[in-house]
Structures are given as C-alpha cells and as structure tokens.
Amino acid sequence: MSAGLSREPLSGADWFAVEFDPATREVVMLDQRLLPGEVRYHRYRTADGVADAIRDMVVRGAPAIGIAAAYALALVARDVTSDAKMFLVANGTAGRVLNATRPTAVNLGWAIARMSRKAGQVAERSQEERFQSMLEEAESIHRQDVESCRRIGELGAADVPDGAVILTHCNAGALATGGYGTALGVIRAAHAQGKQVRVLAGETRPYLQGARLTAWELHQDGIPVEVITDNMAGYFFQKGEIRFVVVGSDRIAANADVANKIGTYTLAVLANEHRVPFTVAAPWSTVDLRTPSGADIPIEERSPLEVARIGSTTLVADGISCRHPAFDVTPARLIDAIYTERGVVKPKIGERPDVLIG
Ligand code: MRU
C-alpha cells in the first residue's frame, strides 16, 4: 500500500487520505472510491485536478477535502510566475473552483479562506518564497487537524461506556481527516484506553462509506466492527444493543444544529427514542457561526445515478427517477454532546458552540 511518499506522512499512520510530497511537489491522495478492494494512490500536479478529485469522491470527508484544497492552492503558488496581482487572481480563481466542489462541508471554505489570507501576506515575494509559505500554511492546517482529532478523541472517549456497542454512520475516520479521525478518533481513543468497545458501522447508502471505509479502517486497527445495512439500525436500538452513537459533521450551525451524511437525522431520532446518547465529533473548522441554524446550511444534491447504481450494477429501471440529497440536518435538541478540540458543547441543555469562545 505504499504511496511512494518522500517523507513520513503527517497523518501519523502509514496510510492516509491526502499528503503533499515535497520531493516531487505533488498532492498525493488515496482513491477512496476503490477501497476496500484496492489501495491506490494518485498524484496531482494542478488545483483543477484536485478539484475534480474532490468532486468525484477520490477524497471525501469535510476536514480531508479542506486539507486537499489547501495543498491545491500551494500548487497554484508553485506554478504562478507572474507578479503579485496575477498571483492573487490565480489564487482567487482556484479557490472559487475548489469551494464549489462540495457545498455542505464548511471546512473547504474555511481552509481556502485561511490560504487566501496567507496568499495576501506573501504575494509580493518571489515565486519560490510564495510557494514555500503557502505549503507551510497547508501543512499547518493538516498538522492542526490531526492534533484536533486526537484531542477530540480524548474528550469523547471519556463518555464512552466500557463494554459499549457504538453505532457510527458514514466515515468520520482517518480517511475523512488529516489523520486519526473525529468520530473514529473517539472510538480509537476509547479502545486505546482499554475500553472493550465494539462498533456497528451503518453501510451508508449510496456511497457505502460505512461498509467500505469505516469497516476497513477499524479492521486495520484491530477494533471489532460489524457492518449493518442502514435500515437495520432500529432493530439494534430496540434490542438494547447500542449504548452510544458518535458521528462526524460537515457543518455545525451557530445554534448547534448539525449537518452530516444523509441518514444521520434518522439515527438521532432513534437514539433519542431509545435514550441512547447521540454525540457528534468535529474540529472547530466545522463550526460555522455565520450560519444561524441548520435551515441555512446548503445541502449538496448529488447525481441520482449514484442512487440508481451500485458500482456498475443498475438497481433502478431506466426512466425512473431517484433523489439524492447527500446530507441531512440533526436539530440541536437531539444532540447530547459535540466534541471539539476546544471543549464539549451540550446542545440538549441549550448550549451553543459559542460557549467555547474564550
Ligand atoms: O460525502 P462524504 O463522504 O464526504 O460525507 C462525509 C461525512 O458525512 C462525514 O461524516 C463528515 O464529513 C465528517 S468527516 C470527519
């Protein structure tokens, strides 16, 4: 599974979603569409190539696509030979293309804004100095994300009961972040503390991130995991098997409403009906205080063909339409805890993320 990287990955593991190779000055990404059957890395030399990869789900997961976009803007700086003004135009154009690829995940806009501030600070410097500064900024975004995931993991693990069966949805793991993961970070940390945890991974139709990615990741770490189809969740709640739910997020509004992979809201309703803690793990870069509530979060609509087909197999007869909202919003009143690297928010008792602004 070698990516042929010229240095140790910043992810902290020997595999990763996205890295920069300083020797070849390329972005390297694991093709998540091929997992678990094949571990194949692709190399990208242009921001447009990275944008296509984000749109096509080579890389996915809110923090990971933010990091990919940051490295993509370093590629722009590597290539632009012209003066400060043209450098900023090129950075702005690439940023807009990257930002339009996935509208729900706010980490994308957050990373692009941070890189654009850096571009403004270094625009007058030489091409090589601009590139080195932009690369350092992207690496700093990447390193901070991994550190945040580890802190989130510690905070969340404290609430995980020993012996718990934990339900998670989609993939909020190392594959969806700079490394370690958010929801899977909580599970990894609980496991590392010696808690006997077992995971139920919802398969997550239509892209099957739970079945293909979460199960693969946990299996690599020796954490017990079983895959269920999405429509089995109610059965396992009713049987009393599930003791804790933890999911990731693509955007957390100012009122603590949480957008995450389609199907998350259903699980929150079930968890509340069965009095099981429903929790969210996300870095602060996922918190969007400028979006007042979940109703204001743009929900990405993806191609209906992704619902009508699994791989090359067509499930739905020609001429019948399908719907494909890629995310849903879980209202704050259903959420027991949001773990961020800044601390824990308890939406059910009326707390909002701004309680963590010191
Ligand atoms: O469509 P995806 O696979 O990008 O959706 C990913 C999710 O919904 C994750 O739960 C979310 O991005 C959090 S990742 C730490």
Q: Helix and strand string, N-terminal first?
A: EEEHHHHHEHEHEHEEEHEEHEEEEE
Low-confidence stretches: none
Strand line-up in the sheet with most strands: 6-5-4-7-10-15-16
Bound small-molecule species: 5-S-methyl-1-O-phosphono-5-thio-D-ribulose
What can you tell me about this protein's structure?
- This protein has 358 residues and is an alpha/beta fold.
- The longest helix has 31 residues, at 127-157.
- Helix 4 runs antiparallel to helix 5.
- The protein is globular and about 65 Å long.
- The chain has a 7-stranded mixed β-sheet.
- The protein has helices spanning 47-55, 62-79, 84-99, 106-122, 127-157, 183-192, 209-220, 233-238, 264-273, 305-308; strands at 18-21, 26-30, 41-44, 165-168, 198-202, 225-228, 244-247, 251-253, 258-261, 278-281, 287-288, 309-310, 313-314, 327-330, 337-340, 343-345.
- 37% of the residues lie in helices and 16% in strands.
- It contains 10 helices and 16 strands.
- The protein binds 5-S-methyl-1-O-phosphono-5-thio-D-ribulose (MRU).
Task: Provide a concise account of the structure shown.
The protein has 358 residues and is α/β, with parallel strands linked by helices.
What secondary-structure arrangement, pairings included, does this model have?
Elements: E1 18-21, E2 26-30, E3 41-44, H1 47-55, H2 62-79, H3 84-99, H4 106-122, H5 127-157, E4 165-168, H6 183-192, E5 198-202, H7 209-220, E6 225-228, H8 233-238, E7 244-247, E8 251-253, E9 258-261, H9 264-273, E10 278-281, E11 287-288, H10 305-308, E12 309-310, E13 313-314, E14 327-330, E15 337-340, E16 343-345
Parallel strand pairs: 4-5, 4-7, 5-6, 7-10, 8-11, 10-15
Antiparallel strand pairs: 1-2, 2-3, 8-9, 9-14, 12-13, 15-16
The structure holds 5-S-methyl-1-O-phosphono-5-thio-D-ribulose.
5-S-methyl-1-O-phosphono-5-thio-D-ribulose binds next to helix 2 and strand 9.
